[in-house]
Amino acid sequence: MSPDSQALAPEGIHIDNVTAWFHNHVEIDGPLEFGLIAGGRSNMTFTVNDQAGRQFVLRRPPMGPLLPSAHDVAREHRLMDALQDSPVPVPRLVGLCQDEAVNERDFYVMHFLDGVIVRDIEIGRTITEANRTRMSHELIDTLCALHRVDIDEVGLGNLAKRSGYIERQIKRWSGQWEQSKTRELPVIERVADHLRANLPADAKTTIAHGDYRLSNCMMDPEGPVTGVLDWELCTLGDPMADLAGLLGYWHDPAVEDPQGDNETTGLPGFLSQEELAGLYADEMGVSLDLVDYYRGFAAWRLACISEGVYARYLNGQQGSQDEELDLDEYKSGVERRAERAAELLGIS
Predict the structure, then answer these.
(1) Looking at the DSSP assignment, which residues form a beta bridge with residue 217?
(2) Quick one: 12-18+27-111 is in which CATH superfamily?
(3) DSSP for 279-346?
(4) Average confidence (pLDDT) over 258-267
(5) Which tens digits make up the pLDDT trace of 307-341?
């Protein structure tokens, strides 16, 4: 290892080993430059640039101890690889490394996508009102395309069980909550009990992205989705949970002090939650009778996930980011999401 080159690498990248891996998998002109993309709350994402202007993206798990089954980047790679020739836009892949001698943890590399990630209201303001409307429609069209994918045809039929999705999710995230919680929050258990007691009948099994939202998609500024990102939580499951997750990140007049997608999608031109849900229901031919159950589930699950993020930041596992997390605000956000879940389910 060159001490000088390693000194230039961000936390989470062994620059000499990773550069050698790149040389074996894709054409590059070294040396490579690595940068941590701020805002990632789970797996760590890095930009990679070579001296000829080629651009790539590298994903790896956080540093330090990890919860069982979490941060499986090999699974992410498998999913995007399966969808390469489907109607669902995903990045072109370079390869997957599972040799921990290279960079301590698994990682995969994909080609950089052109476009914009509308991660905050300032970026949202650069989009015209007409294109915000088109983005809303394109997000629903892409979600419908994902839910229409034949899971057997693309080789994902054995990705997970094909039944009991919500029940399995409640078990998983209750367990994750118990392992990562930093304090007691009784509303989490109260909501979980209600969800278990009111399980919906199994819906048609589809690919369920698990974290589908505006800021997890690379967007053409003119409106289309150029790539769906962040497949870490993807599995086989209930498509209505994906819709509810999207709605949970969308502008909600009932949420005070909105941030991120919720704040951005309140700009003129973006459709309302009701309009998004109606578009999805019309296109997929499904009922919205249980949408508030799924919205409550999505809010509860996000509270459990956010607690894990909060715990990792407390433990210094997310690396140094340009925009450090406001830990007090993030901790309060966990509580607000849990309370919102209870409200949606009528048990507050």
Answers:
(1) 228
(2) Phosphorylase Kinase; domain 1 (3.30.200.20)
(3) HHHHHHT---TTHHHHHHHHHHHHHHHHHHHHHHHHTT-S---SS---HHHHHHHHHHHHHHHHHHHT
(4) 92
(5) 888 887 777 765 554 455 677 777 888 999 999 99
Give pTM, 2 decimals: 0.89
Q: Are strands 107-111 and 93-97 parallel, antiparallel or unpaired?
A: antiparallel
Q: Are 337 and 309 in contact (CB under 8 A)?
A: no
Task: Compute the average pLDDT of residues 267-282.
Answer: 98
- The CATH number of the structural domain formed by 121-345 is 3.90.1200.10
CB contact at 8 A, 55 and 111: yes
Handedness of CA 125, 127, 129, 133 (dihedral sign): negative
- Domain-by-domain residue ranges, the chain? 12-18+27-111, 121-345
**Locus of tokens 């998609």:** 217
The predicted model gives 61-82 an average pLDDT of: 83
Torsion of CA 274, 276, 282, 283, to 10 degrees: -170
**Residue 3, exposed/middle/buried by CB under 10 A (0-12, 13-18, 19+)?**
exposed
Contacts of 275 (CB under 8 A, 6+ apart): 136
**CB of 252 closer than 8 Å to CB of 113:** no
- Asked if 186 and 127 touch (Cβ cutoff 8 Å), the reply is no
The token duo for 6 is 């390693």
